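[User]
Um, C-alpha cells okay?
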Amino acid sequence: MLRPALADREPTHPRDIRPQSTKVTITAHRGQSRLSARREATFVTVFSDDEPDVLVRSFVAGDESALEAVYRRYSALVYTVALRSLGEVTEAEDVTQKVFVAAWSGRQNYQADRASLPAWLLGITRNKVVDAHQARSKQRRIQNELAADSQPQSDPLDIAERLILAEEIAKLDEVPQRVLRMAFYEDLTHAQIAERLQMPPGTVKSHIRRSLIKLKRRLEVWTDASES
C-alpha cells in the first residue's frame, strides 16, 4: 500500500521533463482498482505549483504524471483528515488509497468552476471516511451478535419455572402480589417496599413470608407433576 507523501519541491518551469524512478499507476487487484508504485527508469511530466490549472487539465485528461503529482501534493492532507476521524493508521492509509482511486476513476466528473481540486478530494475523503465508520459499526454489530449467540442458552426448565412463578404470583391477593412483585422484579428492600406502600416493615415481611410459602407449595406440586 502506498503511504501518503509530502509534496516534492517542483522546478520553476510549469512543465518540465525529467527522469523519475517511481511512478504511481492504477492497477487491477482482485477485481478492484488499486494505486501501486513501480520503480522504473522513465520520463514523466513535472508540474509547477505556479500553474495549477495545467495540472488539473492534465489530471482530468488522464495523464498519469498528473496523477502522480496530485498524489504527492495532496495525499498527506487526505491522510491527515482520515486519521483524525478514524484514529487508526491502517484504516487511514486504506481510505487515502481509496480516495485517489475514486478520484482517478471519476476524474471526468470534476468541475473546476465548482470546487478546487483539493476541496474536491476532501469531499471524496469525507465520503470514504463515512463508509469506513459504517463498515466499522457493521463489524462491531456482527461481533456483538456472534458473542450473544455464543452465550449459553437458558435451560427450558428455568424458563418454565419463571413462567409458572409469574402465573402463581398473579393468583395472590392484591396487596401480597404487589409486595412480592416489588421484591422479585424491582429488587426493592423491605424498607423500600414499606415506604412505597406506606405500611410497617413487619407487615411487608409477613406478606413476603406467607406468599413464599404458598409459592413453594405450588411449585412443588408442579415439579412433581412434570417429573411423573
Q: What stands out?
A: Residues 6-23, 27-33, 37-44 have pLDDT under 50 and may be disordered. The radius of gyration is 35 Å. The longest helix spans residues 117-150. Residues 15-149 form a domain with the Rna Polymerase Sigma Factor; Chain: A fold (CATH 1.10.1740.10).
